[in-house]
């Protein structure tokens, strides 16, 4: 058995709701509500599939723009801007990285433990070092350091077992491989196109 929805022939099955949702999404983003049938010919089923794929792509784009707006990486009219946003959530001890307005990475971090503070706010990278050693805390290695406010930095840490919980003197610690990835992104896009946002 088949039925018509906006000009598409849909089978009577458990997939009707996703199909209707795809058609509705297509209409919302300006795609035609149904295929334009040839005169005297039946609408091919593959026309619906093509429209559904386009609707899914549009939904993914809209989702990316929504996240971009949430992280402050949108321009006038809501258009995504090129760049990198590293959002650090102190409550969840996690960093989410957006690239060109789309989610790219999500990593555990370690921020300030009791008695220390990781300041909140929005920053841009100030200076970067591929190899660095702390001048204040026992000459500790800080690979792929990205300093964003005075002595505060995002950097790699070999204390990987502590990631996901507060453990630092105030810096934002990452797994060394993740720190290298972030460092490479900032180098590629530039400090002026990078935002470090820290929230609770």
Description:
The structure is a single chain. By secondary structure, the chain is α+β, with helices and mostly antiparallel strands. It has 3 helices and 11 strands. It has helices at 16-28, 45-70, 176-189, and strands at residues 2-5, 8-11, 84-89, 94-99, 102-108, 121-123, 127-129, 145-149, 152-156, 172-174, 194-199. The strands form 3 sheets. A 5-stranded mixed beta sheet has the order 5-4-3-11-6. It has a 4-stranded mixed beta sheet with strand order 7-8-9-10. A two-stranded antiparallel sheet has the order 1-2. β8 (145-149) and β9 (152-156) form a beta hairpin. α1 packs across α2.
Summarize this entry quickly.
With 200 residues, the protein is an alpha+beta fold.
Euclidean distance between termini CA atoms = 54 Å
Strand order of the largest sheet: 5-4-3-11-6
Please work out how many helical segments DSSP would assign: 3
Strand content: 25-35%
Largest β-sheet summary: 5 strands, mixed
Helix content: 25-40%
Instruction: Find the count of extended strands (DSSP E, 2+ residues).
Output: 11
Structural class: alpha+beta
Low-confidence stretches: 31-42, 73-80
Indicate the overall shape. Answer: elongated
> What radius of gyration results from the CA coordinates?
24 Å
Q: Residue-averaged pLDDT, rounded?
A: 78
